[in-house]
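TICKET #2291
ISSUE: user wants both folds in one file
ATTACHMENT 1:
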Amino acid sequence: MARVALLSNPKSTGNRSLLPRIRSFCAEHKDIFHYEVENVDQIGEALRSIAQVEPKVLVINGGDGTVQAALTELYHGEHFGERAPPVAVLPNGKTNLIALDLGAVGDPLIALGRILELARDDMSDYLVARELIALSDGSANSRPVLGMFLGGAGLAESILFCRHKIYPLGLPNGFSHALTAIAVFVSLVFGFRATFLPPRPNPVKVSLLRQGQFQGQFALLIVTTLHKLLLGSGTGPANASGSLKLMMVDQSPLALLRAVFSGISGRTGRQMRGVHLKHGDEIRIESDRSSVILDGELFEATSGHPIVLKPTAPVPFLKLAA
C-alpha cells in the first residue's frame, strides 16, 4: 500500500518548471505512487490504477481545472468503492483557490513533504469535509460536473479577459491579476468599451430554491463551498443554512469597492448595499447568454438552458494545518 498517491498533469502551467523537482522527490520517497496524465481524459484510467495501491491520501498536482476534473471522476467513477481516500491539493496553477482553502501555500515540494509526513501517522485531526458544487442543466439524465468555486457574470468575463488577453503576455501571475483588476475597474468606473478592456456582463437571473431571485447585471457572481478565498477572506457566516455560498455584487463602482474592502478586512459576511450574500441548496442561473467558470472550465447559460447548481454529499479532504 502506498502512503501517498500523486496525480500530476504535466501540461498545467505551474508544472512546466516544477515537474522535474516533483519527479526527483518521488524517486527519493518510495512510499509515493506518482501517476502522470497527458490530458484530463486520462484521469479516469489514472484513478483506476491508483485505487489498486490503496493510498492513504490522493494528492492532485495541477491547476484548478485539473482538480475539478479529478473530483468529478473521483465522485462519479467510484473507483475506490465506499472508501475513497482524502484529497489533498498542491499549490499549483494560476489561482490555487482550492489549495488555499486547504492550507497549502508556498512551495509545492514543501506541501508534498508535509502531506507525506501526515500520511505516516494518524491524520484524523487534519481531515475536513467539504461539499462539492454539482453543475448540470437540471435534467434527470445529465452527468453533473463537480467543483468548488464558480465565477459568473462580470467575474467570468474578467477571468476570460485575463486568460485570453493578459496571460499570453507572459507576465507573472500576480502582476497579471493586478493588471486585470485595473482594467475591470477602469471599465466599470468610466464605462469605457474597447477590445483591450473586459466586456460588460450580460443580464442574468439567479434563483435560489424557496428564497426568491435576483435579476440584473452583476460585476461579481460567486458560488462556492470553499471556506476561504483570495486575500484570506471568508465566505460568510458558518451557521447560515445551505451548503452553497452565493455572493453577487451589482454592476456599480461603489458596490464593487464595498465588496473588495470587506474582503480585505475579513468582513465578507456583512450585508452591504449592492452586495448580496445568500446560502442555498439549489441555485439556478438563467440568461440569454452568460458565461460561468467552474474551477477553470467554461460553461454557458443560454435561453432555455439554465445552469443548475446543487451540493454533493461531503467529501473528505486533507488540510495541512489542523
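ATTACHMENT 2:
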Amino acid sequence: MKVDYKNFEVEVIDDKNHTLNSTKNLRQYKTVYCEESQFVSNSKHGIIIKENGIEISSIIIYESGGGTTIIDDSFIIEDDKIWIRICNKIYCFSIPTLDLIWHKEFDFATNFSFHKLKEDFIIYGEVEIFRITKNGEILWRFSGRDIWVNLEGKNPFSIESEKIRLFDFESNEYIIDFDGKELEFNSKTTPE
C-alpha cells in the first residue's frame, strides 16, 4: 500500500517470505527489526520510504503473536511519524529515517485495526479496545464478556458519531463513548 506524505512516497507491505539474514530475499531492507531473535515470526511488515523515486530508508519488522496483514487501518502517518500495528504491538517510527521512537504491546492476542480519534488513537484489539496517546500511553481500555469477533455477521467494531459500537463473540452489543464509558449494553441472551 503506497501513500504520499509531503515529498515522500511511503510504502507499507507484507513481506511474509522474507527470511532473516538471507541473501536470497527478493527485497533487502536497510534495517531489520527483530527482537529476541524471533525466528517464529508470523507477521513481517516492511516500510519503504522514497524521495523522488529513490529509496532513502527501509525497514522490515518481525513479530510473533496474533498474525496480521496490511490493510487500510494498519498504519497512520502524520507529524513526520508512522505508527503501524503488527500482531499485538504498535510501533512508531520517524519519517523519513525510520528510526524507532517507541513500540509497545497492547492487546495480548492481536490488534485488528488502528484508528485516529481527535489527537489520539483507538486500537481495535481481539480482547480489548484501547484509546492511546501518540506516545503510546493508555488513556483507557475496555473489554466485554467475550472477544471482539462476531460470527453472526455483525460488525464487531465501528466508530460512529461520538460513540463506538461493539459486538462480542456472543453478539452482545456494547456502546461506549470516546472516554471509554459504557453508555449501553444489550445482552443477546434471552432470560428463560
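RESOLUTION: both attachments delivered.
EXTRA DETAIL ON ATTACHMENT 2: The first strand starts at residue 2 and ends at 5.
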